[in-house]
Design goal:
Strand content: 5-15%
Radius of gyration: 20 Å
InterPro entries: ArsR-like_HTH, WH-like_DNA-bd_sf, WH_DNA-bd_sf
Organism: Neobacillus kokaensis
Largest sheet: 2 strands, antiparallel
Number of strands: 2
Protein name: Transcriptional regulator
Strand order of the largest sheet: 1-2
Keywords: DNA-binding
Helix content: 40-55%
Amino acid sequence: MNESIIDVILHPVRMRIIQNLINQQLTPQQLKEILPDIPQASLYRNIKKLVESEVIYIVDEIPNRGTVEKVYSIQDPNKSLIGSEELKQMSKDEHLSLFMKYMANLMGEYERYLNQDNFDLAADGVTFRQTSLFLSEEELTDFIKELREVYAKYTQYKPENGRRRRTVGTIMIPEPNKV
């Protein structure tokens, strides 16, 4: 029986591997150093499962004393952005995989924040919330346009003294169509 992409990703060891590959490329040896509590055989077995399921990718191969050391990333080196036409052609499992990677990325960012010796959620502006909006198609279009304008205004700021990088995630999920 084939595992679903969700089962592959939600395995605790695999989730830790994924979280450590977000925004970086690592070899199994580097992963072993970051995750010393995972036995080497288990680490390699779970890396293999993630590659076979196309959750992580081999992005480089480095010759090393007669062998080849593979470098892994969560990003597919053959794809940069997914266009609207590609999104339309994706299967349900592919959409779930993409969404799980997005969520894993957010979880990794939040975990790195919480791993600081000292943190203050209120002072640092940490927030996450969920709300439901009842919008017509026209109101939704206006809402998205205004959100894009706000994002555009603030994403043009460059790193400088006094500025701290902050991750902002947005998810919009409509209720299913009623028959």
